[in-house]
Amino acid sequence: MTAGGTCPHLSAEERHAIAVAVRGAACHDATVQAMLVSRLLEGNASDLRTLRKAVALRDWPTVQRSLHRIKGSAALARCNTLVTAGKSLESAAGQGNAAVVNTLLPRYTAILKEFDDTLLALRPAQCQCADAH
Fold this sequence. Notes:
By secondary structure, the protein is an all-alpha fold. 74% of the residues lie in helices and 0% in strands.
Protein backbone atom coordinates (compact mmCIF):
# COMPACT_ATOMS: atom_id res chain seq x y z
CA MET A 1 0.00 0.00 0.00
CA THR A 2 1.14 3.52 -0.75
CA ALA A 3 0.63 6.51 1.53
CA GLY A 4 -2.50 7.36 -0.45
CA GLY A 5 -3.96 3.94 0.28
CA THR A 6 -3.58 2.52 -3.22
CA CYS A 7 -1.76 -0.65 -4.17
CA PRO A 8 1.29 0.00 -6.33
CA HIS A 9 1.34 -1.69 -9.71
CA LEU A 10 5.03 -1.14 -10.43
CA SER A 11 7.52 -3.03 -8.32
CA ALA A 12 10.68 -1.44 -6.97
CA GLU A 13 12.63 -3.59 -9.44
CA GLU A 14 10.59 -2.29 -12.36
CA ARG A 15 11.02 1.32 -11.21
CA HIS A 16 14.77 0.70 -11.05
CA ALA A 17 14.72 -0.82 -14.56
CA ILE A 18 12.88 2.27 -15.82
CA ALA A 19 15.54 4.52 -14.29
CA VAL A 20 18.34 2.47 -15.86
CA ALA A 21 16.61 2.45 -19.26
CA VAL A 22 15.97 6.20 -19.26
CA ARG A 23 19.53 7.00 -18.21
CA GLY A 24 20.83 4.63 -20.88
CA ALA A 25 18.58 6.07 -23.60
CA ALA A 26 19.87 9.52 -22.63
CA CYS A 27 23.48 8.27 -22.82
CA HIS A 28 23.85 9.28 -19.17
CA ASP A 29 23.61 12.96 -20.18
CA ALA A 30 21.50 14.99 -17.71
CA THR A 31 20.35 17.46 -20.38
CA VAL A 32 19.27 14.71 -22.75
CA GLN A 33 17.62 12.86 -19.86
CA ALA A 34 15.62 15.96 -18.93
CA MET A 35 14.48 16.37 -22.54
CA LEU A 36 13.61 12.68 -22.86
CA VAL A 37 11.61 12.64 -19.63
CA SER A 38 9.75 15.80 -20.68
CA ARG A 39 8.89 14.33 -24.08
CA LEU A 40 7.69 11.07 -22.57
CA LEU A 41 5.53 12.86 -20.01
CA GLU A 42 4.08 15.27 -22.57
CA GLY A 43 3.35 12.43 -24.98
CA ASN A 44 1.72 10.30 -22.30
CA ALA A 45 -0.49 13.20 -21.17
CA SER A 46 -1.57 14.01 -24.70
CA ASP A 47 -2.16 10.38 -25.60
CA LEU A 48 -4.16 9.78 -22.40
CA ARG A 49 -6.44 12.74 -23.20
CA THR A 50 -6.95 11.37 -26.71
CA LEU A 51 -7.51 7.88 -25.34
CA ARG A 52 -10.20 8.98 -22.88
CA LYS A 53 -12.01 10.97 -25.55
CA ALA A 54 -11.80 8.08 -28.04
CA VAL A 55 -13.12 5.59 -25.47
CA ALA A 56 -16.07 7.87 -24.74
CA LEU A 57 -16.79 8.08 -28.48
CA ARG A 58 -16.10 4.37 -29.03
CA ASP A 59 -13.59 5.36 -31.69
CA TRP A 60 -11.68 2.07 -31.54
CA PRO A 61 -8.97 2.88 -34.14
CA THR A 62 -8.06 6.02 -32.19
CA VAL A 63 -8.15 4.08 -28.92
CA GLN A 64 -5.72 1.55 -30.39
CA ARG A 65 -3.46 4.27 -31.81
CA SER A 66 -3.29 6.10 -28.47
CA LEU A 67 -2.59 2.89 -26.58
CA HIS A 68 0.09 1.93 -29.09
CA ARG A 69 1.86 5.28 -28.63
CA ILE A 70 1.82 5.00 -24.83
CA LYS A 71 2.96 1.40 -25.13
CA GLY A 72 5.92 2.61 -27.20
CA SER A 73 6.96 5.04 -24.46
CA ALA A 74 6.61 2.30 -21.88
CA ALA A 75 8.66 -0.12 -23.96
CA LEU A 76 11.43 2.44 -24.44
CA ALA A 77 11.60 2.87 -20.67
CA ARG A 78 11.21 -0.85 -19.92
CA CYS A 79 7.88 -0.49 -18.10
CA ASN A 80 6.63 -3.99 -18.85
CA THR A 81 3.57 -3.72 -16.60
CA LEU A 82 2.24 -0.82 -18.67
CA VAL A 83 3.12 -2.56 -21.95
CA THR A 84 1.18 -5.67 -20.89
CA ALA A 85 -1.82 -3.65 -19.70
CA GLY A 86 -1.80 -1.74 -22.98
CA LYS A 87 -1.82 -4.96 -25.00
CA SER A 88 -4.94 -6.14 -23.17
CA LEU A 89 -6.72 -2.86 -23.84
CA GLU A 90 -5.60 -2.82 -27.48
CA SER A 91 -7.04 -6.29 -27.94
CA ALA A 92 -10.38 -5.31 -26.40
CA ALA A 93 -10.54 -2.15 -28.52
CA GLY A 94 -9.71 -4.18 -31.61
CA GLN A 95 -12.78 -6.28 -30.89
CA GLY A 96 -14.88 -3.18 -30.19
CA ASN A 97 -15.58 -4.52 -26.70
CA ALA A 98 -16.59 -1.37 -24.80
CA ALA A 99 -17.40 -3.28 -21.60
CA VAL A 100 -13.91 -4.75 -21.34
CA VAL A 101 -12.22 -1.47 -22.34
CA ASN A 102 -14.17 0.41 -19.66
CA THR A 103 -13.37 -2.27 -17.08
CA LEU A 104 -9.63 -2.25 -17.83
CA LEU A 105 -9.19 1.50 -18.29
CA PRO A 106 -9.08 2.54 -14.59
CA ARG A 107 -6.29 0.06 -13.80
CA TYR A 108 -4.44 1.09 -16.96
CA THR A 109 -4.60 4.78 -16.06
CA ALA A 110 -3.39 3.98 -12.53
CA ILE A 111 -0.38 2.12 -13.97
CA LEU A 112 0.27 5.00 -16.37
CA LYS A 113 0.20 7.43 -13.44
CA GLU A 114 2.77 5.34 -11.58
CA PHE A 115 4.91 5.25 -14.71
CA ASP A 116 4.64 9.03 -15.09
CA ASP A 117 5.45 9.51 -11.39
CA THR A 118 8.53 7.33 -11.87
CA LEU A 119 9.54 9.44 -14.86
CA LEU A 120 9.00 12.66 -12.89
CA ALA A 121 11.42 11.40 -10.26
CA LEU A 122 14.01 10.94 -13.02
CA ARG A 123 14.15 14.59 -13.99
CA PRO A 124 17.81 15.41 -13.33
CA ALA A 125 16.99 18.28 -10.97
CA GLN A 126 15.01 15.87 -8.77
CA CYS A 127 17.01 12.72 -9.36
CA GLN A 128 19.51 11.77 -6.70
CA CYS A 129 20.44 8.70 -8.73
CA ALA A 130 21.93 10.17 -11.91
CA ASP A 131 25.31 8.62 -11.17
CA ALA A 132 23.96 5.33 -9.82
CA HIS A 133 24.52 2.10 -11.74
